[in-house]
Automatic annotation (TrEMBL):
It catalyses: molybdopterin + ATP + H(+) = adenylyl-molybdopterin + diphosphate; adenylyl-molybdopterin + molybdate = Mo-molybdopterin + AMP + H(+). GO terms for molecular function: ATP binding; metal ion binding; molybdopterin adenylyltransferase activity; molybdopterin molybdotransferase activity. Coiled coil: none annotated. This is MoaB/Mog domain-containing protein. GO terms for cellular component: cytosol; dendrite; postsynaptic specialization membrane. It comes from Brassicogethes aeneus (Rape pollen beetle). Transmembrane segments: none annotated. Residues 6-151, 369-512 form the MoaB/Mog domain.
């Protein structure tokens, strides 16, 4: 259900324009983060006056908005009257909401006890008083927002949705955490990266579904239809220069200037006579009878009157067709201009606009839901409690998807317990084809993702381990939910691991589901000093790959531990460093590329490397850097 909201900022200072309203816009942002389909129907600012607050609340209620959020005027100052005004409007109080906000806020500040916020119901609208400070308003909204869809469903009598909401709340996982019974070794076979990639792409069925969207919003989407020229471009003969439209056969000499034809003018329907010229601007239609344009530089003014030219002299003999853009000379009518499957560029958008298209058919993208898992995670902007860290994975992954032109919906943070993970997955499966999670896939007793997927959703886990660093516990599963196929990428929690595995597996998958073909990242080979890998797994080391003076070069971005997200800063490639064992074999067999010969203590010669250089395969996931 798409909720409608009204936001009312109550503040003398904001009303008078003495300070900027930041709480209203912040609430708008919080609402859309939480409910991407919600509609912010109205926003308004009133002073701290009971009557004005009441008037606005009445108007919002009359519009039957589902929820009205007020911000400001809930404290102890003489001017704080929002609760008084709200009480005069509501028919029934909703004390639970104010109670939750106060008690949760008390965990952050004892001054929360000074809040007098009122929540209540008028007709089918819920009115919620929130504090005036931007941060507190956003926090309090966060405490109660989860309950709003259900509350609105009950209030508006939407039986099916009420039942569903009840079912969602009651959902309990069949998975039971028992540390003593957990597997002591992973039961999932370790796949090589290539095998895992092939498996992911093989499982993915291109939907081939298309949708019609506005040309102006089509950048980077994949075109589903060929684009033909419905009409020639230009559609009329047009001047290429600012000058005079002439009859070429009139040749040189003094001519009478008849009138002016500017770009955008309707073509003149009287024919140009012998000895006449018409002043014309670039892009203007060529008048009847004219068959050439003489640029102003090749003429001389002979006679003028009141700022108008009367006579000019043509100084260079014109040739027929000179400086005239023929009909269809840029694009002929009926030709194929842009091919289906093309990824739409800025120029494509421009060409479609030029051809008169306002809408275009593109391939539908998969709908993507994304959630983080972890008890330790705290949303950016909120104060960290001991033992907590900020949730960086969700923002990294959502924005990585954006870099490849995919949009994902945020399904929040699921805590490390089977019920919460189960509920979050169910919610995400309702509306999405693909669900991406991070964390909870390794060997800890609270790593319950795989169990919830198999036991609660009957999912097939196609793989649960990959021979790579970072990203070992990467998991890929499919399942049917409400008779629809769902794909799950349960990525490792370590920030680098989830990002690298998204680049390697998720992005190619999303492209295939959209386009039927997939992205093939280019590989380059670089010769650089040996990189040690102490792990048996091949390492995908984040690197800056650059091209300088005709030589390809690469260097890693510092420490490559999987937690160090900043190892991705500036990186455009992944150097594939063979696992320790393979490296050892290679080293004993291979010769250093550069070396010098020096006699050893026994007087024999051996190779002494100046610097051990190896040839590495590097995957480029972003543009090469040119230095
Ligand atoms: N006994 C074993 N332990 C671990 C193994 C193993 O094979 N045996 N594998 C290690 C590897 S490799 C990885 S990678 C991690 C993957 O762990 P999980 O996917 O279970 O993820 P968590 O345990 O939940 O978290 C790991 C790490 O990442 C941090 N994290 C999680 N989510 C976020 C987030 N949204 N934003 C920022 N940071 C996040 C979390 O706090 C942990 O530090 O397992 C190893 N263990
Ligand atoms: O494979 Mo994990 O991703 O090393 O850290
Ligand atoms: Mg774990």
């Amino acid at each position: 259900m798409a909720l409608t909201f009204g936001i009312l900022t109550v503040s003398d200072r904001c009303f008078k324009g003495e300070s900027k309203d930041t709480s209203g816009p912040r609430l708008e942002q919080e609402i859309l983060n939480k409910f991407p389909m919600a509609k912010i129907a109205e926003k308004h600012i009133v002073p701290d006056e009971v009557e004005e607050i009441k008037e606005c609340l009445k108007r919002f209620v009359f519009q039957s908005y589902n929820v009205i959020l007020t911000t400001g005027g809930t404290g102890f100052s003489q001017r704080d009257v929002t609760p008084e005004a709200t009480k005069q409007i509501i028919e029934r109080e909703a004390n639970g909401l104010s109670h939750v906000m106060t008690s949760k806020s008390l965990e952050k500040t004892q001054y929360a006890m000074l809040s007098r916020a009122v929540c209540g119901i008028k007709n089918t609208t819920i009115i919620i008083n929130l504090p005036g400070s931007e941060k507190a308003a956003a926090e309090c909204f966060g405490f109660i927002s989860e309950s709003l869809p259900h509350a609105v469903s009950v209030l508006t009598g939407k039986k099916l949705e009420v039942e569903k909401a009840h079912k969602d709340v009651q959902r309990t996982s069949k998975v039971k955490i028992d540390a003593s019974k957990r597997d002591r070794h992973s039961t999932y076979p370790m796949l090589e990266v290539d095998a895992a990639t092939a498996l992911v792409l093989n499982e993915c069925a291109a939907t081939n579904k298309t949708e019609e969207i506005l040309v102006e919003e089509s950048l980077y989407r994949i075109l589903a239809n060929d684009i033909f020229a419905k009409a020639p471009v230009p559609p009329f003969e047009a001047s290429i220069k600012d000058g005079y439209a002439v009859r070429a056969s009139d040749g040189l000499g003094i001519k009478k200037v008849r009138y002016y034809a500017a770009a955008g003018d309707t073509p003149i329907d009287s024919t140009l006579k012998e000895g006449e010229v018409i002043r014309i601007s670039t892009g203007a239609p060529i008048p009847l009878g004219a068959d050439a344009v003489v640029q102003v530089e090749d003429t001389k003014l002979i006679k003028s009157q009141d700022g108008e030219e009367l006579e000019i002299e043509i100084k260079i003999n014109p040739k027929t067709g000179q400086d005239i853009r023929k009909i269809g000379s840029d694009v002929e009518k009926g030709v194929l201009v842009i091919k289906r499957y093309n990824k739409i560029s800025a120029a494509d958008v421009g060409v479609m606009a030029m051809l008169g298209y306002s809408k275009v058919h593109v391939f539908k993208q998969a709908s993507i839901g994304i959630l983080s898992t972890g008890n330790e995670l705290c949303k950016a902007g909120e104060p960290l409690k001991p033992g907590q860290i900020y949730d960086s994975n969700k923002l990294t992954l959502m924005n990585l998807l954006k870099e490849y032109h995919y949009q994902a919906t945020d399904y929040g943070i699921a805590r490390d317990n089977p019920d919460d993970v189960y509920k979050s997955f169910a919610k995400a499966f309702e509306k999405n084809d693909v669900v991406i999670t991070s964390g909870g896939v390794s060997m800890g007793e609270f790593d319950v993702i795989k169990q919830v997927l198999t036991i609660d959703f009957n999912a097939i886990i196609h793989f649960g381990r990959i021979n790579m660093k970072p990203g070992k516990p990467t998991t890929f599963a499919t399942l049917d939910y409400n008779d629809k196929r769902k794909y799950v990428f349960a990525l490792p929690g370590n920030p680098v691991s989830s990002c690298v595995t998204s680049i390697l597996f998720v992005i190619p998958f999303l492209r295939k589901i959209e386009r039927a073909e997939t992205i093939k990242y280019p590989f380059v080979h670089v010769s650089i000093p040996e990189i040690k890998n102490s792990d048996a797994r091949p390492e995908y080391a984040r690197a800056v790959v650059s091209f300088k003076n005709g030589i390809l070069s690469a260097h890693t971005t510092g420490s490559q531990v999987s937690s160090r997200l900043n190892s991705l800063l500036g990186a455009n490639g992944l150097i594939i460093v063979p696992g320790k064992n393979l490296q050892d074999i290679n080293n004993s067999a291979s010769q250093p590329i550069f070396g010098q010969t020096t006699p050893n203590i026994f007087g024999q010669y051996s190779i002494k490397p100046i610097s051990q250089t190896c040839l590495y395969k590097v995957l480029l996931f972003s543009e090469l850097k040119y230095v």
